[in-house]
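I keep forgetting this: the sequence line spells out the residues, with the fold written below as integer tokens. I include a record here:
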Amino acid sequence: MMCIRKHLLRIVNSSTAFFNKDVFLISSLSWYFSKKAFSSKENDRLQIDYSEIPIYRIRNFSIIAHVDHGKSTLADRLLEHTGAIKANSGHSQVLDKLQVERERGITVKAQSASIIYKYKEENYLLNLIDTPGHVDFSNEVSRSLSACQGVILLVDANEGVQAQTVANFYLAFGNDLVIVPVLNKIDLKNADPDRVCKQLQTLFDIEPTQVLRISAKLGVGIDDVLEAIIERLPAPKVNRQSAFKALLFDSWYDRYRGVLSLIYIKDGDVNVGDQITYYHTKKSYEVKTLAVLRPQEENVKKLVAGQIGLIGCNMRSSQEAHIGDTIHKINVDIEPLPGFKPARPMVFAGIYPFDQSQHVSLRNAIEKLVLNDSAVTVAVDTSPALGQGWRLGFLGLLHLEVFSQRLQQEYDAEPILTAPSVTYKLKLKETKQTIKQGDVIYVSNPVHFPDYLQIAEYYEPMVIGTIITPDKYLGSVISLCMEKRGVQRNATNIDNDRVMLQFDLPLCEIVLDFHDTLKTISSGYASFDYEDNGYQQTHLVKLQILLNGTPVDELSSIIHSSRVDVIGRKMVSSLKDIIPRQLIQIAIQAVVNGKVIARETLKAYRKDVTAKLYGGDVTRRMKLLAQQTAGKKRMRAIANVSLPREAFIDVLKRS
């Protein structure tokens, strides 16, 4: 005991942190002994019949925060503190199970865990859902909140309120959830909790006295968080006496057990062996397994209303599980639960197998991964250069990158991705091809873009971008937004040092490099979040790439008319470096509405036809050169320029 106390005092005395040393010492000692108590036994899990826990002792909650504010670390401490996992096991980010999550250090999939906490001599069942923090995975947050009655709003005491903090707060507020504000990382030297509390009060009307102060890394204040969850959050409003009804809010594929469904039970109960029906698909199954995630699966015989659990019923087809579906017992009439608003894809890209022999395996991999990521939309597509493939819709560029990385890591697939694009709305003129004037079509693939003579009006998708930045970078941030054709909505001073800006921005301008550029000009301090804002009238053009007068559809793109010159010159310059030289001269042209915007010429290989001459009349030399010129002219007239597959992939990567 004395050795531990001396060690903790040495840590406290060497730290320049502002918090009370006695409070820190007491909290750290209590955390240490609670961990020892749980880890002293070989089997440290509490053997409890979860179905016997009354409704008033159940709490369902999520942790929401901006990227890197400590959600996964707090989840680890909560699991350790309640004995769900062993302390000092050497594993961090326990709920981040995907390889891509550990490599990137971000949460991609919302993960659930059920923990038992003893409070006032009674066991409480706390169902925790750890959610992603990046805007591209806001759909995961939205689905997770449907199974909760409250949230922990986690804010970094050093960085303060960020853009995604604002978005997540209003997402929870709009769902009428109770919000428990928590400041994390108070142990950092530059942490300023008082300043961050004022930000919370300015933006969200949260009283500083309601804000908890913790250090998830050191385990300080974890008991306060658990007690606040029990005291402030309401129990789920469910009825265990009525007919069984559950909401399917997540699912994934297991190669041995088929599709597994994560459900929130709204009413009634379900037992192993029951016959259940999925409301929208009308398909029935026998319940084979039921489990509670702690965070590893712990099989149970029964799940009751108010709980979050895993159900397996030997569902073999990934097409039979729809996120948001209502599950009920067979031959029982019920009213379906509201479900979810379908996620609207923002960014589209083509995905093709590296070789057509891999088409079937890539299709199976995409189907299984889409089951686990319901925000992705899939449509069959075909390319003359790349063969058969798919056009997939994503919520953002990071979403696209993570999906591609998961295909490679989890299914050993090697997909080729085309350049990302967004969906444009076009209003057509009255022609023979249209039924009536004013027909509206949506185009995400430049190949399907109609002739400009048929189009009456162009519309591009818009977003409301929220940027929080230190005021010393304000000028650079505004200049960047103006360069991206943004229109400022408002500006709010959060405190003496930081400003929150809102801009109307075209989606096509921010999906590629906006976030990286913003981080560069603000030295990494600015944060960005956006939300859909419908369509706005604009002027678009289709930029075509011609090789010796022949259009290459795969290299076409839809761009704003103001960016034609810049993008056109960049494309032809890149193609000149990438396309291998051939025996004929190749004219590389960027064309808009029949007008050449930029051109580069790739010179042909020159065969020295006069090498065999060693003298004699000069007319022999001139005759051979004239024959070569005529031959090249005939070849250029009839030859097809072949763009090698490798060169085409290089073009897509550079674009």
